[in-house]
Design brief:
extended, about 0% strand, about 110 residues
Length: about 110
């Protein structure tokens, strides 16, 4: 049996040409992966600042924010890797864990200061 499948094809990109819809077409998992790598670098920078500028609340807040953000994205990876959450719920997982991370960060921050 022959299937009649119509696939819309677009003109291929030329060398150096940017895809105008690349941000909209990028899945949230890719953004989460990228932001987790950026937050890892931020942790290194804020940890160095924290060690040189001891007892500066703003530096401590930035470090806590970076660690909480990195941890929630890491928890997302664990939940997806062990198939505890289906990939189709990834968008809700990212936003839900980000909210949970902010709540935990707020509890830690306000119990400390």
């Amino acid at each position: 049996m022959e299937r009649n499948v119509s696939i819309e094809c677009r003109k291929p990109l030329q060398w150096g040409e940017l895809d105008p819809g690349r941000r909209e077409n990028t899945k949230i998992g890719m953004w989460a992966w990228l932001w987790q790598r950026i937050s890892a670098l931020a942790i290194i920078v804020f940890l160095a600042l924290h060690m040189t500028l001891t007892y500066k609340p703003f530096v401590q807040l930035l470090l806590l924010l970076a660690v909480a953000f990195h941890a929630t994205l890491g928890l997302r990876v664990i939940l997806l890797d062990f198939n505890l959450v289906d990939v189709k719920y990834q968008r809700a997982l990212v936003w839900g864990l980000a909210g949970l991370g902010l709540v935990v960060m707020g509890i830690i921050w306000f119990s400390t200061y």
